[in-house]
Amino acid sequence: MSPLIRALEAALFAATQPMSVEAIARHLGQGEAAVREGLRELAAHYAGRGVELVERGGRWHFQTAPDLAHLLRPMHEEPRRLTRAATECLAIIAYHEPVSRAEIEAIRGVQTAKGTVDVLMEAGWVRIAGRREVPGRPVIYATTPTFLAEFGLGSRRDLPGIEELRATGLLDPVDEAYDALMGQGAVDPNSEEALRQ
Amino acid sequence: MSPLIRALEAALFAATQPMSVEAIARHLGQGEAAVREGLRELAAHYAGRGVELVERGGRWHFQTAPDLAHLLRPMHEEPRRLTRAATECLAIIAYHEPVSRAEIEAIRGVQTAKGTVDVLMEAGWVRIAGRREVPGRPVIYATTPTFLAEFGLGSRRDLPGIEELRATGLLDPVDEAYDALMGQGAVDPNSEEALRQ
Amino acid sequence: MNEIALPPGEGADLFTAPARDALMLEIEGWEGPLDLLLDLARRQKVDLRRISILELVDQYIAYVEAAEALKLELAADYLVMAAWLAYLKSALLLPKEEQEEPSPEELALRLQLRLQRLAAMREAAARLLARDRIGRDVFLRGAPEGLRIGKKAVWQADLYDLIAAYGQVKARNAPVVHIVRDRKVMTLDSALARMSAMLGVTLDWVELREFLPPATQAEWSDERLRRSALASSFVAALELARQGRVEIVQDHVFGPLRLRSLNA
């Protein structure tokens, strides 16, 4: 492989923009005819490979082979349901933002894995909104405009208030955690009847 | 040219960062063994050309051949020069990692400005690698794959002279080195004489 | 250990007057006393394991004294090091039996080990910088097309999930049932009725408290109920005044409120 071809290959690889024959010749201190000849040779070498050397409007550049374009695009998107922990976390951030992880845990009443908030950030719904100026300077989280858009909210004020949640029955104790808290002994006999129906 | 080689070539040309075998395999939907084999073949093809395929810290990327630096430098902005303090810090972290700030200072004999390690972290060469489980739990620092890539090191074993430094105990703390010397029981009475010259 | 010393004489002429001047010019160049010591040690032009510590101490102290003679301001740590080295030198010269722990030989050896380590790292740094660096010696693709790597998880949740989750959190952790203890109160209506009835039978000024049911009655003995009655009676008095049926006077702040019927 000739020194000129090597130099051409390196220069075009490292160039941030397509280069004209004149510019290449000037940079490499070579005659334009030699550069033109070298470019043809280099283009022939790359023909059919994964990368091609092409001329567009008098300027040369490397590009990946057009038939491999699908390799450069994102693979496949994998829809996944948000876990319950993550959903609760998101809800708490939305209702209480800006809020630290410790505060989220205090509201959830359970430890919250770091990964849970990471998932929300990965989804683009939650961002770091700075640090709380208290000892330890914990990171505080808030929601993003993407969150509002994807959840169909004009603003955070559109989130239903506590009273509205109560009215829709969403504050009714429905889960096991509540039963556990209340203790099985405290179950109203009527409700057991109801449950057995 | 096999489809896998073409795909590898295109993907690595297009990638904005060095890629691990796992990442390439995942991206191309290929087995890691096949990818590894393909990388070897591709690297062999590029050997001696103006562009080379290299492995740095387990990640692969294309770069221009080092001997062409003089041709390409004029076309590129020179990276920011490191201060002596930053360079020494970087070397100490690289050769001793993971290492705490106090350990860096013990070697350099001067306090290290907070900004010095920050500059190295900002450059992406140094990361926080946890805390040393000693009183005070100091943060410890280590280098990154980016550091290896940028300094042309396949792995930390390629750090210049590291084997020799290790063998001669020059990477051991002074206390250990002293104890090792004393432990040999080879205290030559002449040496004490010599010191008093 | 027997490598520490230098054959007598060698290196002794390295610290001559011109060298000292040159040294002074570099005053800003050193990063602390250890750095200066290393530089001085190197001027002995021998393997660092063979330097003469006594020689080094003399050179360092000479440097510090010269700096003082030139009225150069030295940082405190240089002077601390000078004092320590002077101590080390005198200890090294003392007869062995008068020495304390740690021995001066140990201190000298430790200093030498430190210098070796600093020198090793300085050389390593230089070799590191001499490597082919990306952006300086080798270059990456200037305009990569970019690659979106790996699977992209598209997280799904909707507003219902969100508010339902919040509801559950609230239901789980907020006090679920508010039990307000059944507490007796005097309602405003009953206070109004009672006050109206009492005002109908007198034209005199009557203090507000006199409208309250007497505490001697068992059912009104509860202090909290009496406070409720007082509050309701006060509001009832204001209401009657608004209607123009009573007038209210208060002689001083926090003084007793007195009422008198207007439409007798």
Describe this structure in words.
The complex is a heterotrimer, with 2 copies of chain A (197 residues) and 1 copy of chain C (264 residues). Chain A is α+β, with helices and mostly antiparallel strands and 197 residues long. Chain A is built from 11 helices and 7 strands. Chain A is 49% helix and 16% strand. The C terminus of chain A is likely disordered. Chain C is elongated. The N and C termini of chain C lie far apart (120 Å). The interface between B and C is large, with 62 and 58 residues. Strand 4 of chain A pairs parallel with strand 1 of chain C.
Topology:
The complex is a heterotrimer, with two copies of chain A (197 residues) and one copy of chain C (264 residues).
Chain A: H1 3-14, E1 19-20, H2 21-28, H3 32-46, E2 51-56, E3 59-64, H4 69-72, E4 77-81, H5 84-96, E5 99-100, H6 101-108, H7 114-122, E6 126-131, E7 139-143, H8 145-150, H9 162-167, H10 176-182, H11 189-196
Antiparallel strand pairs in A: 1-3, 2-3, 5-7, 6-7
Helix pairs in contact in A: 1-3, 2-3, 5-7
Chain C: H1 17-25, H2 33-43, H3 53-69, H4 76-93, H5 104-129, E1 152-156, H6 159-173, H7 188-199, E2 206-207, H8 223-242, E3 246-250, E4 257-261
Antiparallel strand pairs in C: 2-4, 3-4
Helix pairs in contact in C: 2-5, 3-4, 4-5, 7-8
- How much of the sequence lies in strands of chain C comes to 5-15%
Count of runs of 4 or more consecutive helical residues of chain A: 11
Terminus-to-terminus distance of chain A: 87 Å
Determine the number of helices of chain C (DSSP H or I, runs of at least 4 residues).
8
What is the element string of chain C, with H for helices and E for strands? HHHHHEHHEHEE
Total number of β-strand segments of chain A? 7
Helix content of chain C: 40-55%
Order of helices and strands of chain A: HEHHEEHEHEHHEEHHHH
| Overall mean confidence score, pLDDT of chain A | 80
- How helical, in percent, are the residues of chain A? 40-55%
Q: How are strands sequenced across the largest beta sheet of chain A?
A: 1-3-2
The average pLDDT of chain C is: 79
Q: Determine the structural class of chain A based on helices, strands and strand pairing.
A: alpha+beta
Uncertain runs of chain A with pLDDT below 50, 5 residues or more?
173-197
Low-confidence runs of chain C: 1-20
Shape of chain C: elongated
Largest interface: B-C, 62 and 58 residues
